Amino acid sequence: MRAVGGGPVRRWGVRSGDIWLAGTDRGTGDPVVLLHGLASTHRWWDLVAPRLRGFRVVRFDQRGHGGSGATPDGYDLEHLVADVRAVLDGLEIDRAVLAGHSLGAAVALRVAATFPERVTALACVEGGVYDPRLLFGPTWEQARTVMVRPSRGRITVAVLRAWLAGTDLPEAALPAVLANYTGAGPDGALRLRLAPSAAEQLARDLWHQDPVPLVKAVRVPVLVLAARQGDAGQDEPRRASVERARELLGQLLSVGWVAGGHELPLEHPDRVAGALAALAARVPHPA
After folding, report:
1. For the chain, how many structural domains are there in total?
2. CA 150 to CA 70: how far, in whole Å?
3. Is 287 within the bounds of a domain?
4. Count of C-beta atoms within a 10 Å radius of residue 15
5. At what angle do helices 196-208 and 140-147 cross, to 10 degrees?
6. Is the alpha carbon torsion for 69, 73, 77, 78 positive or negative?
């Protein structure tokens, strides 16, 4: 591991196989590791992290995203799980509350199922326990049109500002949105940091993940935060997936339904942070 600077936010790099993973470490207390979703960065948790007072909050850019290294291949959940283990080892964290949003939730679920000794509690925010075939389509060809959306037209800061203004996200979310993109060219155009081929590989592997055997293997408290969007086509797959998780997890599971869209960490940071803190409080401490 290499660390940069002191102060309230510590920046670090950890090697995982052939790449460096870049992240931040803030605060003291029980560790909470936050995993971002597809094509975003650790900054997707910008509005949540400062609200987790009393915890050591660890965030990093998953491979191919943000400031972390990229490789020609290796964009699947198995590699992302190995990256989480590398971060825990590099930061000398034996066990942590693991929280993920979207793709990050799928990674977190797989870590909790595969390496239960490293996870004290699991939070799946808009993902993880969701059945991708219910949510995105029964075939990859159908799901691909939803999960992998090529940008249309020229993306600029002004375009992103206008897009943000048309959503329920706060203006404070703009830096997190901009972090998904890299340098403007002479015409002011931005491009996503995550390569299109990497995005497709990750999306396809996510679509193939069956959450049921993974949920069955979890033995720690689990929080699911699910968006209630007021659209039956979106809400029903979420409801069915959450009910299946409830059947499998019983009293280990707590569920929070939040009126909003997919980007809950940006849209409802107070609600998300409060739920994560409550989950962490359920973790038993050694005598």
Report:
1. 1
2. 20
3. no
4. 13
5. 130
6. negative
Predicted pLDDT of residue 215: 98
Distance CA 100, CA 84 (A): 11
Q: Which residues contact 189 (CB under 8 A, 6 or more apart)?
A: 154, 155, 156
Residue 254: half-sphere exposure toward Cβ, Cα within 13 Å: 14
In what helix (H) or strand (E) does residue 89 lie, and over which residues does it extend? helix 77-90
- With residue 226 as reference, give the H or E element that holds it: strand 222-228
Helical axes 77-90 vs 196-208, angle rounded to 10°: 100
Within a domain: 74: yes
pLDDT tens profile 251-283: 999 999 999 999 999 999 999 999 999 999 888
Q: Specify if 215 maps to a domain.
A: yes
Q: Which domain holds residue 153?
A: 2-281
Q: Is residue 111 part of a domain?
A: yes
Round to whole Å and give the CA distance between 83 and 89: 10
Q: Has residue 87 got a pLDDT over 60?
A: yes
Q: Hey, how many other C-beta atoms are within 10 angstroms of the C-beta on 53?
A: 10
Pick the closest to residue 105 from 212, 181, 206, 191 (CA basis).
206
CA distance to 14, 79, 157, 211, per residue, from 85 (Å):
11, 10, 35, 20
**Is the CB of residue 127 less than 8 Å from the CB of residue 100?**
yes
The residue with greater pLDDT, 184 or 24, is: 24
What CA–CA distances, in Å, run from 105 to 112, 167, 206? 10, 23, 10
Query: What pLDDT digit, counting tens, does each position of 13-27 carry?
Result: 999 999 999 999 999
**What pLDDT, on the 0 to 100 scale, is given for residue 127?**
98
Give the E-state strand segments of 106-176 in sequence order: 119-125
Q: For residue 268, give the CATH number of its domain.
A: 3.40.50.1820
Q: Which residue has the tokens 């959503």?
A: 167
